[in-house]
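Please, structure for the following, as tokens.
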Amino acid sequence: MKKYPVIVLFSVFVVFAVFFGFCASSSSSNSSDEVESDGKEMTKWNEPSAHFVTSPYIPQIVEFAGEALPIHLFDVRESLERELIVNMNFHSNTLQYLKRVTRFFPVIEPILAARGIPDDFKYLSLIESDFMNRVSPKGASGFWQFMKGAASEYGLEMNSEIDERYHLEKSTVAACRYLNDSYRTFGNWALVAASYNMGRAGVSSQMRNQQCNSYYDLWLNEETSRYVFRIAAVKLILTDPQRYGFYVPEEEKYQPIPYTEMEINTAVPDLVEFALRHKTNYKMLKYLNPWLRDNKLTNPSKKTYIVKIPAEGFRETQKRVDEK
């Protein structure tokens, strides 16, 4: 019984030692934090991080092809905002847009202008294909994603050796003809863009059924209902990329490839040999002439084709960024 006071005293001592040890540790930690901060305010655990996500900027006036989007309507504004959010956060895709357009817009822009098509339709081509000469699950091909029927109707040649849907200049001319025909039907560029996605018959049918002649008032399928807003969002981001979180120095953007043009009106039995004879290789010949779909050009009708021959040494003309 006499040992209990000793045990009690020992327990009280341990409690006090732990308590004062904790206080000393806290004081030391606070003092250390104050020294490490060097007079700067330190971020508290419950303060927002320096990296944050916010709603995208939407200008008071947003235009597509010279026509204002009615962004005072809640559904129109939200539809545009959706596409801005998607493209702002699809970094890998949007960053490549910024790099590629400097190579291909200079080809597309004068063709659109010469045929009375608003400049904004260059963004339609971009969202159609990402400037990657894609083939859709339905068979649409090239930058302008022509189906075979429409391509043939608008004068593009297609056979086992040639597919001019992949010819940038010729397919852009064909797209202009299609767009002008659509404008004669609708008299409105937003509906023209929608018809490029859905078809003229599809848009016309929905206009009749819904007794409506505004793209922004039509209830359409998911893809077409987003289509014009996708174009408008990409235009906003590419024309003011830093506002939307992107920065690509001019020297890092892809530049047009220098080339000379050669007329061919005879057969070319071996395009590999043809490329080597003109001081390039098959890969670069195909890169500049993706419309050549085989390794030969028999050309039985003796038609004249213009083939691009890349300038000698062009692959070394741009220094790597890490070598500067």
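DSSP finds eleven helices and four strands in the chain. Strands lie at 63-64, 67-68, 259-264, 305-310.
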